[in-house]
Amino acid sequence: MKCCLIVDDSKVVRMVARKILEALQFEILEAGDGQQAMQACEQTMPDAILLDWNMPVMNGIDFLRQLRQHAGGDRPVVIFCTTENDMAHIQEALGAGANEYIMKPFDSDILESKFAQVGLL
Amino acid sequence: MTPDDFQKLATLLKSQSGLVLGPDKSYLAESRLTPVARNWGFPDAKALIRALVRREGKGGDSKLLLEVVEAMTTNESFFFRDQRPFDQLRDVILPSLLTSRGTNKRLRIWSAACSSGQEPYSIAMILNDMQHKLRDWRIEIIATDLSRPILHRATEGRYTQFEVQRGLPVTLLAKYFTQDGDQWRISEQLRRMVTFKVHNLLDGPGTLGRFDIVYCRNVLIYFDQATKGKVLEGIAANLADDGFLTLGGAETVLGVTDKFKMVDGQRGLYARADGTATALKGAPGAAGQTGRVGAA
Ligand SMILES: C[S@@+](CC[C@H](N)C(=O)[O-])C[C@H]1O[C@@H](n2cnc3c(N)ncnc32)[C@H](O)[C@@H]1O
Question: Which of A80, B47, B126, B190 has the lowest tally of Cβ within 10 angstroms?
Answer without folding.
Answer: B47
